[in-house]
Amino acid sequence: MSFIIFTNHYQLLHFLFFLIITITPSSLAQSQHNQFCVAGIGYGESTCGTSSSSSSNKLLIKGGTVVNAHHQQIADVYVEDGIIVAVNPTIAVGDDVYVIDATGKFVMPGGIDPHTHLEMEFMNTVAVDDFFSGQAAALAGGTTMHIDFVIPTNGSLTAGFEAYEKKAKKSCMDYGFHMAITKWDETVSREMELMVKEKGINSFKFFMAYKGSLMISDELLLEGFKKCKSLGALAMVHAENGDAVYEGQKKMIELGITGPEGHALSRPAVLEGEATARAIRLADFVNTPLYVVHVMSIDAMEEVAKARKSGQRVIGEPVLSGLALDDSWLWHPDFDTAAKYVMSPPIRKQGHDKALQAALSTGVLQLVGTDHCVFNSTQKAFGIDDFRKIPNGVNGIEERMRVVWDIMVESGQISVTDYVRLTSTECARIFNIYPKKGAILPGSDADIIILNPNSSFDITAKSHHSRVDTNVYEGRKGKGKIEVTVAGGRVVWENNELKVVPGSGRYIQMAPFSYLFDGIDKKDAAYLNSLQAPVKRAKSTA
């Protein structure tokens, strides 16, 4: 990989002056940008850099096959000031426009990853990818927006949000926030309302696992679901039976199974299926839409399928590791190798991956996330004598777009338009930011990728852009290379060169009451009309 590097102070000062006089809507965080550039914040060989192509406010992508979720056509795409202005068969432009030839390639909306954990404090350590390195990796892989999870600070949503605002100051692409709920009282209830109405959060996550830290009770789950419904916010669940997992962990330790394989054995698929079913039924009881994060097993997927077949509003999100890997790696004799595959719910046995792929291709599951949450080998080694202490998490934010293309499109399981829907558009619709995001249409944000279906990729830890020192997709080769990434109208990835600027990312507020809430009030009314209650009875004279 290569980066733009300043070799002297004159170049840096010239660069900063240039930015000051060329402010565009895609660089709203300019003062932060300068602050980080002067500080030299980056990773590896990178400092801060850009080029005439990435800073130009006019861009033409010529001759590619433009793909949206329901249509594709050969057309040019013209961009000004970070916004798509026109999509037409032939667009003539002046000499001041940066032109990219996309003939024979696919021009698509940038990917949106609905599930990431950057710089997350978890299991007595902190994930190594922050909002700069993680987003830089995402851009190199064709993802132009992600939605991260804010973890409350001592139960406080406001304090948690403020902490994540600080973490995100070094961001280099657009991002949004979900919010986790880890306790319940009237303060939390009021803060949920504040998050929705003033902070642009329209989804709340409830952990049914991680007993003793993040896990919540069914009582809290019901209260949370009711509040989500009233606010028009989407309820999300990490579905594993935390009490049973805790018992499973104790059982493995008693059996002397302390290695990474114990992680998978302690939390089998049946516990994911049980919690998924429970969450779905409680959401149905409240009559509120539900989003099940990281569906990793046939057991959980079948519960989602059954609910959707009955007409319930349930979204199932598989993640890349569940679609592309199996749990055999957890039995590897080398601890470091096995430990890097530890995540929750665990990667399942061979067969679950193919079933999840089939569910994705038939519409049972709706979009693909990553649950990108990375810890290096030193951090993973915290659990060398006890798998319960291995920080949970794998990579995927950079690999998602190319691997999904390879295993789903190249295999013939989905179409090119389906690929756009699963990696971008459906996420934008679910979280109410379509067509600002997730589309190549006039007026949409200029978040665009150019994918060459005839070009190959090769994934290695040495060549990826994440700060983690391992890669769970190590050695994977395939078809479908992201050759260009445009974020907010800036060319940030081209010719295998990453051009990213800390502080240039934007926080995207997401409004409540997405399409998933359409008709919820009518179902409530139908329920009330069906009760035939209360029954009027004559008062007893006795």
Automatic annotation (TrEMBL):
Enzyme Commission number(s) of this protein: 3.5.2.2
Boundaries of every Amidohydrolase-related domain copy: 106-492
A GO CC term attached to the entry: cytosol
Keyword Signal: yes
GO BP terms, alphabetized: pyrimidine nucleobase catabolic process
Range of residues in the leader sequence: 1-29
Cofactor(s) needed: Zn(2+)
The reaction(s) this protein catalyses: 5,6-dihydrouracil + H2O = 3-(carbamoylamino)propanoate + H(+)
GO MF assignments: dihydropyrimidinase activity; metal ion binding
Alphabetized UniProt keyword annotations: Hydrolase, Metal-binding, Signal, Zinc
Modification after translation (UniProt): Carbamylation allows a single lysine to coordinate two divalent metal cations.
UniProt keyword annotation of Transmembrane helix present: no
Listed Pfam families: Amidohydro_1
N6-carboxylysine: residues bearing it: 205
Family, per entry: Belongs to the metallo-dependent hydrolases superfamily. Hydantoinase/dihydropyrimidinase family.
Assembly and interaction partners: Homotetramer.
Record's protein name: dihydropyrimidinase
Protein species of origin: Medicago truncatula
